[in-house]
Task: inverse folding
């Protein structure tokens, strides 16, 4: 049995878009399309998808706040120039960071599941099926 995954290691694995338990399986099949479970250890990735979306929403709000404070502190020469710069930066920041933020949310979900189960690891599914027994999207094969 592998040693217990530390909180920091699980979060860094999520940030790297890898399975928070084993660190070897990818979280995503495509840019923002999750595998139902880890292709290596079988950990289901979205046992409570509402929790991961909540984390993604809250971090989006936080990033928006950072952009607003930056606009106030930097004071562009005109409102138009500020809007012209802010729009592509905001879109790029929000969309570009989604897989990373959602990876951290999945790692947090894994850590919560582990602590709720008294410190034991969540049970692997044994295949690439998710918690409901569904197969990955059509044509998807573990890599």
Result:
């Amino acid at each position: 049995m592998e040693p217990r995954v530390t909180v920091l290691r699980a979060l860094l694995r999520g940030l790297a878009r890898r399975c928070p338990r084993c660190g070897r399986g990818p979280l995503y099949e495509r840019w923002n399309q999750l595998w139902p479970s880890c292709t290596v250890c079988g950990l289901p990735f979205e046992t409570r998808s509402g929790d991961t979306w909540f984390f993604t929403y809250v971090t989006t709000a936080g990033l928006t706040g950072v952009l607003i404070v930056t606009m106030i502190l930097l004071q562009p020469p005109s409102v138009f120039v500020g809007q012209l710069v802010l729009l592509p930066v905001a879109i790029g920041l929000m969309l570009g960071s989604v897989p990373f933020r959602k990876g951290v949310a999945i790692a947090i979900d894994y850590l919560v599941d582990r602590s709720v189960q008294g410190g034991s690891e969540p049970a692997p599914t044994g295949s690439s099926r998710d918690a409901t027994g569904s197969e990955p999207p059509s044509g998807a094969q573990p890599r």
Notes: DSSP finds three helices and two strands in the chain.
